[in-house]
Amino acid sequence: MIIGMKITRDSSKKLLRLSHKNYVEKLLERFNMHKAKPVTTPLAGHFKLSTKQSPTSEKDKTEIKNVAYSSTFGSLMYATICTRPDIAYTVGVIN
Question: Is 1 a residue whose pLDDT tops 60?
């Protein structure tokens, strides 16, 4: 393990794999997403965010203020750059 990354090398197939499984699991736990259902594609290409999806009730607005957006986004960017390029599009959309 280097910087929390698991490195696996398969010389016969000339493969080098990097895994950040522990980091991602801790991230999900930290942001209370550990019970979320996994999906193969985090966000469909045609999906667009709009202000219509913003919270409208006072309760929802109060709850969203408690979300650590910058910390969440930064953590996802780190994962994207290091070992999870598959989530780059989705992370870019939420920026």
Answer: no
